[in-house]
Amino acid sequence: MAKKKRSSTIADTSVQDKPATLKDFLRPEVLAGLKAQADAMKAEEQARKEAVRAEAEAVRKAEEKRLENDFGHLLEKSSLDWRKHK
Description:
Blueprint: H1 7-17, H2 22-25, H3 28-68, H4 71-77
């Protein structure tokens, strides 16, 4: 007697054992809309971070320019060893 193959029933049960996800329940149009909305939100967040970084850079440069014109700051910052510049 030949043994019966049961591989087909095992494959069927493994597909049915998987829990259903939200992706399975949503229509493709709704899923595409949600993905587009997520991408737009990520782009907006990236633009906001870039704007904050650019503003911080502008503030830093303005402070550096102000200190560059301040004689007291330049005097404190420079070395007083005149032998180096002889």
